[in-house]
Amino acid sequence: MAPGALLHETPAAPASKATVAAPTENICTIPSRFPNLISTEFQDFRAELAENGFAIIKGAIPRERAIQYQEKAYEWIKSFPGDLDMNNPDTWVEKNLPITNSIKAYAYYCVSHEKFFWDARQEPGVLGAFAKLWGTDELLVSFDAMNLTFPNRKDVPRRPPWEHIDQSPMRRVVHCIQGLMALSPSGPKDGGLVVFPGSHKLNEEFFDTQTDKKSWQPMKDVHVFTRAELDWFAARGVHPHKVCLEVGDMVMWDGRTIHYRSEPTEKSNQIRTALYATYVPASLASADQLKLKKQAFESYSGTTHGPHQYIVVRPNGVCLPDGTPDPRSREASLESPEMTDKLLKLAGVIPY
């Protein structure tokens, strides 16, 4: 999936033979256009982003509306053929559920353009946080996925942690801040987001000393960490932390912060419902990327975390595990949003 503080002085640790330090002279790194985007000098969530790599915006969506969005998400997933009953765990099985993407989120069947998803993206508390972050309200938003995780499913194995970042090693300092809106509670035992606080501060040191520069790709905004690599961070005091959220909260995190989606524990009975959305200034998008973004919008397609670059139009024609076309594939959303100028500008369809 797709995509975004200063260096932190730490004691040096010896590199293993498998991770010999690579010389970084003459490597063409990509500096940030916003090196001061986050700082501990701010008196708000931007200081938390700078210090910890993530921040929680309490009540970004009023609780009552967040609950309504969750109800609409339930209507969406129940609209597929099958006997899905949100109150009956015996029905939480593959034959009753649409197909997810590689990280077990719902990114197909036009879900990115359902009215409830677009309404949530336009919530004043959500837009306001990103407008303050970037210093402008002229923003683009990603056509991202929805997470709807049923706890303790009996038909699929638990997904192991997938510790990763959404920023290429070639990108230096902060480039992207991602967002997730919680439509359900996410307590210590529930499924949710796990982050490694402070890992963003060690980003450059890690890649400069522990990886081979030949693996660096500017157009591949992801790095999945091995256990040995995570041990390197652990030796510097960086450990996983489960982010706990209430209904309507939004968590924002630096693309350099190691994170993954956690599975609910056996003691959880909470159906996790969350919407991913990342915003950047519209001025960052090129004409070619805006053309692709418009194409994705007009075909009700999802993209990636990136709202303005490396736009990949995901097909709505989904295939079943055996490779045959999924007859449940859709060409349009169930409930279309109101096509206001505000929405069309966020979508990149019309200019600011």
Give a structural overview.
- A 5-stranded antiparallel β-sheet has the order 1-9-5-11-3.
- Helix 2 runs antiparallel to helix 3 (115-121).
- The chain has helices spanning 45-52, 63-78, 115-121, 124-134, 203-210, 227-234, 287-298, 341-346; strands at residues 54-57, 139-141, 146-149, 164-165, 177-182, 192-195, 223-224, 241-242, 250-254, 259-262, 272-276, 279-281.
- With 352 residues, the protein is of the alpha+beta class.
- It is globular and about 50 Å long.
- The longest helix is centred in the N-terminal third of the chain and has 16 residues, at 63-78.
Write a brief structural summary.
With 352 residues, this protein is of the alpha+beta class. The protein has helices spanning 45-52, 63-78, 115-121, 124-134, 203-210, 227-234, 287-298, 341-346, and strands at 54-57, 139-141, 146-149, 164-165, 177-182, 192-195, 223-224, 241-242, 250-254, 259-262, 272-276, 279-281. Helix content is 22%, strand content 12%.
**Structural class by SSE content:** alpha+beta
Query: What is the helix content?
Result: 10-25%
Round the Cα radius of gyration to an integer and report it: 20 Å
Strand line-up across the major sheet: 1-9-5-11-3
How far is it from the N-terminal to the C-terminal residue, by CA?
28 Å
Q: How many individual β-strands?
A: 12
Described by the principal axes of the CA atoms, the overall outline is: globular
β-strand amount: 5-15%
Order of helices and strands: HEHHHEEEEEHEHEEEEEHH
